[in-house]
Amino acid sequence: MREVSTELVTRTVRDLCLEANYRLPPDVERALAEARTRETSPAGRDILDVICENARIARDEEVPLCQDTGFTVVWAAVGREVHFDGDFKAAVDEGVRQGYREGYLRKSIVEDPFRRKNTGDNTPAAIHFMLVEGDRVDLLIEPKGGGCENMSRIAMLKPADGVEGAREFILRTIDEAGPNPCPPTIVGVGVGGTFELAALLAKHATVRPVGEYHPDPFYAELERNCLEEINQLGIGPQGLGGRTTALWLAIETHPCHIASLPVAVNVQCHSARWKRAVI
Ligand code: SF4
Predict the structure, then answer these.
(1) Which atom of ligand 1 lies closest to the CA of 269?
(2) What is the torsional sign of CA 78, 73, 6, 117?
(3) Rounded distance, CA 100 to CA 121, Å?
């Protein structure tokens, strides 16, 4: 067993919260710059220029990329040879608390969905825990904005709906979202599993690096086709028209029940922030 201190977990989460909110992942920044060269709409080009400039300022001056600094989603892959010297979840929340306080990041979490009193420190985080081989702790922090999260959808399709039904649902979700998720977006799609697993797959797909297609050529082609069709919708950057509605679309799949075909779409905005560290 390898002993991992919860203090180190807290420090790492704190740093990741700050880094993720200040710096777009390089693949996302590259995709935005490339989209700028392809965009044909003058308004779309202007918006992409502003988004790229905003990313540069946030990085250089260490200020948040967006006023909405998100729900702190934590993907934690923990090696089965790891032993924590304390409460892992409490350590993650303490890291979020410190990061959001020290970085003056907006506190966006309410302690009850109906009574809506702000928790004041952006906790609790949404922690997705995975047990893996080895003695390392892989932490990925994804601050998830409310505007794009609200445009996410799930459908329990019939198996007979097949690829065509899934494709139509993905397209309809993005079309109906229009300008609301702050396009250009990254579209995460989860297909299969159960109701909740499909949603989790879709969220996880949003942190796959831009340009990294699904290893199965069948799904890689579906990713290409769906992205192309989304970009023909004409929604464009911030919904002002153009060919850049989504920068990227990634699909994750899981075996499913003979009677089911769950399809979930998790929309990530242009402020597609995440940062990862292994301890
Ligand atoms: S959806 Fe994204 S870009 Fe839009 S306000 Fe929320 S965090 Fe910011």
Answers:
(1) 2
(2) negative
(3) 7
Mutate to test the pocket of ligand 1, among 54, 68, 69, 149 (most ligand atoms within 8 A of CB): 68
**Which ligand 1 atom is the nearest neighbour of the CA of 147?**
1
Give the domain extent around 138: 2-20+65-144
Provide the pLDDT for residue 43.
97
**Please, which residues have CB within 8 angstroms of residue 208's CB and are 6 or more apart in sequence?**
188, 250, 252
Q: Are 72 and 171 in the same domain? A: no
Q: Residue 101: left (phi > 0), alpha (psi -120 to 50), or beta? A: alpha
- Give the chain's domain count: 2
Ligand 1 centroid – CA 69 distance (Å)? 8
Give the largest CA-CA distance in the chain: 58
Buried b / exposed e across 68-87, counting CB within 10 Å, b at 16+?
bbbbbbbbbbbbeebebeee
CA of 19 to the centre of ligand 1 (A): 17
> Which pair of structure tokens corresponds to residue 130?
């995975």
Q: Report the CATH number at residue 190.
A: 3.30.1330
Q: Is the pTM of this model over 0.90?
A: yes
Cβ atoms of 144 and 71 within 8 Å: the answer is yes
Q: How far is CA 126 from CA 72, 109, 114, in A?
A: 6, 11, 18
CB 13 within 8 A of CB 96: yes
DSSP string of 97-143, one letter each residue: HHHHHHTT-----BSSTTT--B-SS-PSPEEEEEEESSS-EEEEEEE
For residues 56 and 156, give the distance between their C-alpha atoms in angstroms, rounded to a whole number: 41
In ligand 1, the atom with minimum distance to the C-alpha of 146 is 6
pLDDT digits (tens, 9 = 90+) for 235-277: 999 999 999 999 999 999 999 999 999 999 999 999 999 999 9
